[in-house]
Amino acid sequence: MFDRHPALFEFALPLISWKSMQFLNGDFGRNRFKFMAQPFGFSGCEKALGKITEIVKEDISKWDLNGEIGLHKEMMKTAINIITKTNFGCHFQEEGNSKILLDGYTKVFTDFDDALLGVWSFGQGDSREKEFERNVQNFKTEIKRIVEAHIEQRKAGDYEPAPFLDALIDNIEDEDEIVHQAITFMIGGFHTSGTMMTWFFYNLGLHPEIQKRVQFEIKETLKGEGIKAMQDMEKLTYTKQVLNETLRHVKLAPFSERQADKDVEVDGYVIKKGSQILNSLCLTLDDKNAFPNPNNFDPANVDGEKSKGLAFSPFGFGVRKCPGYRFATVEILVAAVEVLSHYKVDVVDKENIVEPLYGFVTKPEREVWIHLQPLE
């Protein structure tokens, strides 16, 4: 199944337009999806691995080890640095350009999330909506500037490859579509990843016994060498299990949806071709038949996750599975190794648990404050 109902992302139309991959179906959509997903597949991740490690190390070196660290803020910064510096060209060699982009994005999605949560609504014509429209336009203008700068670099013949942006430019003639596909994948490339890393480290800070086991596996498996090849990640079985439990426990995306492309029978019930199928992840990821301890953060819940079937499908399912799922996994495992090889993560306030705020992506209701304690 590939097609899905366009209503799923209609709320984001002011930012991504109908040209976005989020709305494309049929053979045209499949072809677009195929070439746009390639930079984030195994080969693309393999090529980007060294750069991702370099970015993570550099970002960690800037953290205040003597004070409290705003975990979500830092993870979002790292995530946007990774996606832009690996896939969007030389524009992001200047550190300030990533900050400008993140600040603009934060303004736009604060309004999107509040609209989804019913705090305010579009169509009122009030001062907040006018400010929102200005922020969206400023964000689009910045993305257009990035695209045009890379096109000029390519014409000059001496440029730093930007796998995803290059794929867009090589395959799409409409610059307006290039801009909106760039927005779609850039947001998808750091919004979910940065939030996922936040929840990963927060839960480790709340569960020191799990954190110790992850640190032991990293130490014994990698021998202080870090992740040097994609194969190294396959050896981190327990760390990946904790990552999967993070995805299950927090329900990073609350649902996915597909249109049945043929009649499908499920437990004796026939779903007719053309039916819209909603996979309610907020329910399936708490299914007691699949996960023995669903209400608690427990890596044992996802032991043998492949046997869980669609009950465990946090990145979606089928041929339209999130194109960046592998890239996101690489990001978080590199971050896990680089942080936990050297530091213990301590949550500042363990008594007042930071609750999930469900919206476009399930983010923490407030900042997560941590200390990093150097390992002996």
Q: What report would you give on this structure?
A:
There is one protein chain. The protein is globular and about 55 Å long. The protein is built from 13 helices and 9 strands. It has helices at 13-16, 26-37, 42-61, 71-87, 95-116, 127-156, 163-171, 175-206, 208-222, 230-234, 237-250, 281-284, 325-340; strands at residues 69-70, 256-259, 264-266, 269-271, 276-279, 343-347, 356-357, 363-364, 369-374. The strands form 4 sheets. It has a 3-stranded antiparallel sheet with strand order 1-9-6. A hairpin with a 2-residue loop joins strand 3 and strand 4 (269-271).
- Main sheet: strand order: 1-9-6
**SS element count, helices:** 13
**Shape call:** globular
Low-confidence stretches: none
SS-derived structural category: mainly alpha
Order of helices and strands: HHHEHHHHHHHHEEEEHHEEEE
Strand content: 5-15%
Fraction of helical residues = 40-55%
Please summarize the sheet with the most strands. Answer: 3 strands, antiparallel
What's the assembly state of these chains? single chain
Radius of gyration: 21 Å
Distance between the termini: 51 Å
Query: What is the total tally of β strands?
Result: 9
The averaged pLDDT comes out at: 92
Secondary structure elements and pairings:
Elements: H1 13-16, H2 26-37, H3 42-61, E1 69-70, H4 71-87, H5 95-116, H6 127-156, H7 163-171, H8 175-206, H9 208-222, H10 230-234, H11 237-250, E2 256-259, E3 264-266, E4 269-271, E5 276-279, H12 281-284, H13 325-340, E6 343-347, E7 356-357, E8 363-364, E9 369-374
Antiparallel strand pairs: 1-9, 2-5, 3-4, 6-9, 7-8
